[in-house]
Amino acid sequence: MNIPAPYLLMLGDSSDPLSIKTARGIHYWRPEKCLAQLRLNENTASLSLPEMDVKTASENGAKTLVLGTANAGGVLAEHWIPLIVEAISLGMNIASGLHQKLTDVPAIAEAADKYGVTLFDIRHNNDKLDVGSGEKRAGKRLLTVGTDCSVGKMFTTLALEKVMLERGMDATFCATGQTGILIQGSGIAIDAVVADFISGATEALSPACNPERWQLVEGQGSLLNPAFSGVTMGLLHGAQPDALVLCHEVGRDHMRHLPHVEMPSLDDIMSLSLTMATLTNPNPRFVGIAVNTSKLDDAEALTYLNRLSEQYKLPATDPVRYGVASIVDHLESVFGG
C-alpha cells in the first residue's frame, strides 16, 4: 500500500472531537504528509492545519483526499459524495477507513475510472486469511487493551514503539485499525475481518520473528464493550501477548455510544484479559497502565496516576502528558532489553 502524499484531511461535519481521531492520528504521527484540512461545518473540531477546499488543495499539490473521520457503523454520508467526486475530477486519490467501500458507490467508482485515480479502501483486506492456530511462535509481543474503545490504544502503542526504537530495541508497530494503517503504511483492519479469521489475521500480522524483536500490536475495542468485545478477544488470542498495557480514560461515565452501559473497572478488565490471554500464552503480564487524563489538571492527574501505580505495582502514565518511558523501563526490567 502506497498512498501518495501530501494529504488533504477531510474532517467531516461532526462536533464530536473523537470523530476526527483518524485525521488527528495521521497529523500527530506523520505531520509531514498533511497539507491542509477540510471541514464541512464550522463547529467541527480542528487540527489547526490550513483550511482548504478541494480545488485549492489540488492547486497546492495535494495528492490524496483522506476521509479522516470515524463514525458508528463506518458509513459514507450521502452529502459527501459530490465533494469526493469533485476531488477525483481534480486528479486526487481518495483514501477511506470507513466500513462502506468507496468502490461500492457508483458515482465514486465511475469517476475514479474516468479520471484514472486510485481508491484506497483501507479497511478492506484482499489477502487470503486463515483461522488462528494458537501455536507458539518466535518473538515477543505486546498488546494494548482498553476499558473501552477510543481510550488511546493506538497512541500508546505508537508511543511505545518510538521510545523503544530510540533505545535501540528491536520493535515494530503492527497496525490493526484504519488510522494505524494510514500512519504505518501497512496492516490489517481487524474490525473488518470475518469473525472466524480475526485471530488468524492477528497471527499473520505478527508472525514468527527474531526472538529479541517486540511486535507491538495495536489493540481494538474492549472485552467488556458489548458492541466490540469480539474483535478484542480475537486480538488477545492471535497476538498471544507476553506483555499487556491497559489503556483507560478518566471521567468517562459510560461506554462510548452506549449510555446504558457503565464503564467497567480496571480490575475487571485486567483480570479478564489475563484469563483470556492464557489460552495462547501461559504467562501474559501487564507491564503498565496508560491513562488519558485530559479531564484533570496536572496536579490531579499526577495524584491519580500515583494512586494507580501504588495500587497495581505498575507504572501508570499519561502518554501525551508524560510519555511512556516508565512503561518501557518496566518492560525491560521484566523481559530484558
Description of the structure:
It comes from Enterovibrio coralii. Residues 131-328 form the D-glutamate N-acetyltransferase-like C-terminal domain. Pfam families: DUF1611, DUF1611_N. This is EBNA-1 nuclear protein. Residues 53-124 form the D-glutamate N-acetyltransferase-like N-terminal domain. The chain is of the alpha/beta class. It has two domains: 7-121, Rossmann fold, CATH 3.40.50; 140-335, Rossmann fold, CATH 3.40.50. The protein is 34% helix and 18% strand. The protein has twelve helices and 13 strands. It has helices spanning 21-29, 54-59, 81-89, 106-115, 153-166, 178-184, 198-205, 229-239, 266-277, 298-312, 319-322, 325-335; strands spanning 7-12, 34-39, 64-67, 93-96, 119-121, 140-146, 171-174, 214-217, 243-249, 254-255, 258-262, 285-292, 316-317. A six-stranded parallel β-sheet has the order 7-8-6-9-12-13, with helices on both faces. A hairpin with a 2-residue loop joins strand 10 and strand 11 (258-262). The radius of gyration is 20 Å and the shape is globular.
Explain the layout of strands and helices.
Layout: E1 7-12, H1 21-29, E2 34-39, H2 54-59, E3 64-67, H3 81-89, E4 93-96, H4 106-115, E5 119-121, E6 140-146, H5 153-166, E7 171-174, H6 178-184, H7 198-205, E8 214-217, H8 229-239, E9 243-249, E10 254-255, E11 258-262, H9 266-277, E12 285-292, H10 298-312, E13 316-317, H11 319-322, H12 325-335
Parallel strand pairs: 1-2, 1-3, 3-4, 4-5, 6-8, 6-9, 7-8, 9-12, 12-13
Antiparallel strand pairs: 10-11
What would the keywords be for this entry?
12 helices; Rossmann fold; 337 residues; DgcN-like_N; 34% helix; DgcN-like; DgcN-like_C; alpha/beta; EBNA-1 nuclear protein
